[in-house]
Design goal:
The protein is α/β, with parallel strands linked by helices. It has 3 domains: 185 residues, Rossmann fold (3-Layer(aba) Sandwich); 174 residues, 3-Layer(aba) Sandwich (Rossmann fold); 190 residues, Rossmann fold (3-Layer(aba) Sandwich), CATH 3.40.50. The protein is 41% helix and 15% strand. It is built from 21 helices and 18 strands. The strands form 4 sheets. The chain has a 6-stranded parallel sheet with strand order 2-1-3-4-6-5, sandwiched between helices. Strands 8-7-9-12-13 form a 5-stranded parallel sheet, with helices on both faces. Strands 14-15-16-18-17 form a 5-stranded parallel sheet, with helices on both faces.
Length: 585
């Protein structure tokens, strides 16, 4: 292994080491052959470690999951124009989810006299970063080896500055392969840390506290506050002081969970009820206000507010993340007190201000009565969910509720982490749901996220003794089936449980809604949507990659033993395992 940098790509490895990047995911490509050689022969393949994937979308999604679990970015390397196009959906997911990823690209030599015929020409762009510019925080393409450190450190800093997100740094193939005529000094990377996130203006916090303390029925709605897991304790304390019900939008859709499922004020399963009763709503890191406060008709796409009189307080950094091209900013909803700040940082100050006001407010009886009523409703909801499992247990194929319950029975005594999926929301309803053990969805609702992101989470937890679980949808897996190779090759101990309904189930619901609205046969909803002729045998596919796999299973009694065998493989042998279970569409 070389000890001193000799080429431009060696310098890139030194920069990766300097900022602490431990892993680089890639699918091989000739435009970054220089960087690949440096990672292997200069870096030794271990500092940072190479993670081989079979598709650039897998490489970036893996880095996405890793960043959420580790709290720090890793790098993904993509091959010029074609690799960047393959990776683009995963980059968009990361942008929507505000996940920091360092995407290193490459291009054929910008100096046309150094290009090989054909391939270097068709794989060179002016400028390559324009392809993803609308959904990265920064794209850059340094023109010399000497410019590399500044470009790299700027990208690294911005990726981790709130609101976080992916960055793209394109490396000219000739620059990578350029011999170093003289040493290029590395700056002190500790002097290029991300800026501290913005805090809320004190007068705004005081006004928010006043409105919440004086409210007849305050409600707290969260969507992605779970980006900062340590905020959960303060969030729950604020809800308890106000006796405010909590609604977490992340349990069944996108976002990052932040409300424990067992908390007596958790009313996520009764959103319509508490939104309808609220007079003041505190929205923390909520992007989609209509999802939080409204109800949408699948047929007409029309959304109606469940409560038009409630006053809304919003704390988020959403306005700092707006891009014109991708309208991820959602509908423009009326907000009575907008506060542009890091919600997790604002919470302690808001809690202190609320406690100060409540200490001077003698009216505690209404809050005590509300707490008792909400706790009873919370308990009733959980009883309803458990009853649903009992009623559906004998159904074939399995109901998602039953499969989620079976998984919980097997893993509840383990130090578990839910790397991906919610089992159509049933994991949140039935498990001892703890936000610090869950990582939410893709952000951009792009298929192909689940397995590679779960592998990234597993990589982040490798060696920790945690049991990483992936509740995997079949249609999503078919986009990135090659991720099974990465799981097996790198011996990533991930338990994948297939929620296999042999369909793109969400679209079945849409086709049924539109057919009924038009007076057409709803039974035709399966045409062009079902994945059953032939039905993929995911267990055999996984076995072909060298993964322990069982299935397809379609009875509840067979699920538990299969899961127990799979857990033993994951824990005792440190290998991935997959259990394919057929579920109701």
């Amino acid at each position: 292994m070389a000890t001193a940098p000799r080429y431009g790509s060696d310098l890139v490895v030194d920069l990766l080491r300097a900022v602490g990047v431990e892993h680089v995911a890639l699918n091989p490509g000739a435009t970054f052959r220089g960087l690949h050689d440096s990672l292997v022969n200069y870096g030794g393949g271990r500092a940072p470690e190479l993670v081989l994937t079979t598709h650039e979308e897998i490489a970036v999604a893996l880095a996405h999951g890793y960043a959420k679990a580790k709290g720090a970015p890793m790098a993904a390397v993509v091959h010029d124009i074609v690799g960047l196009q393959h990776a683009s959906m995963a980059i968009f997911n990361a942008f929507c989810d505000r996940a920091p990823i360092l995407v290193l690209g490459a291009t054929g030599p910008m100096d046309a006299t150094r290009r090989r015929p054909w391939i270097d020409w068709i794989h060179t762009a002016l400028v390559q970063g324009t392809q993803v510019r609308d959904y990265v925080k920064l794209d850059d393409q340094p023109a010399s080896v000497g410019a590399l450190p500044e470009a790299f450190l700027r990208a690294w800093r911005l990726a981790r500055t709130e609101p976080q997100g992916p960055v793209y740094l394109c490396l000219d193939a000739a620059l990578q392969e350029e011999p170093l005529e003289r040493p290029v000094p590395l700056p002190d990377v500790t002097r290029f840390r991300p800026a501290a996130p913005p805090c809320a203006e004190p007068r705004a916090i005081d006004e928010a506290a006043r409105r919440l303390a004086e409210a007849r029925f305050p409600l707290i709605v969260v969507e992605s506050l779970g980006r900062c897991p340590e905020a959960t304790e303060t969030l729950c304390r604020l809800a308890e002081r106000l006796t405010a019900p909590l609604v977490d939008l992340a349990g069944e859709s996108q976002g990052r969970p932040s409300v424990p499922g067992g908390h007596p004020l958790d009313m996520s399963g009764a959103r319509h009820e508490v939104v309808g009763e609220a007079d003041v709503v505190l929205a923390l890191d909520v992007s989609s206000f209509l999802s939080a406060l409204g109800d949408t008709d699948r047929s007409t796409r029309e959304t109606r507010l469940l409560n038009e009189s409630a006053r809304v307080i919003s704390i988020s950094l959403d306005d700092y993340a707006v891009r014109s091209w991708a309208q991820t900013f959602q509908s423009l909803a009326p907000v009575d007190l907008p506060i542009a700040a890091d919600a997790a940082l604002a919470l302690p100050a808001l809690l202190a201000a609320v406690e100060d006001r409540l200490a001077r407010d003698p009216r505690s009886a209404p809050r005590r009565a509300r707490a008792k009523r909400l706790a009873a409703r919370h308990a009733a909801l959980r009883a309803e969910w458990r009853a649903a499992v009992s009623l559906e247990r004998s159904a074939r194929p399995l109901a998602p509720s039953v499969l989620a319950a079976e998984v919980w029975e097997v893993i509840k005594g383990e130090d578990w982490v839910l790397a991906n999926g919610t089992g159509k929301g049933w994991a949140r309803r039935l498990w001892e749901w703890r936000p610090e053990r869950t990582y939410g969805g893709s952000g951009g609702a792009g298929l192909g996220y689940g397995l590679p992101a779960a592998l990234g989470v597993t990589l982040a937890h490798r060696g920790s003794g945690k049991l990483c679980v992936n509740l995997q949808a079949d249609g999503d897996l078919l986009y990135v089936i090659g991720g099974l190779y990465t799981a097996a090759h790198h011996r990533l101990p991930l338990l994948t449980v297939m929620f296999n309904n042999r369909s793109y189930g969400n679209d079945e619901e849409h086709q049924e809604a539109i057919a009924k609205a038009r007076g057409r046969p709803a039974e035709n909803k399966v045409v062009g949507i079902r994945i059953d002729d032939p039905a993929p045998d995911f267990a055999r596919i996984a076995q072909g990659f060298g993964i322990h796999a069982e299935g397809p299973i379609d009875t509840a009694d067979a699920v538990g033993p299969a899961l127990q065998r799979a857990v033993r493989v994951v824990k005792d042998e440190g290998r991935p395992a997959l259990v394919d279970v057929i579920t109701r569409a």
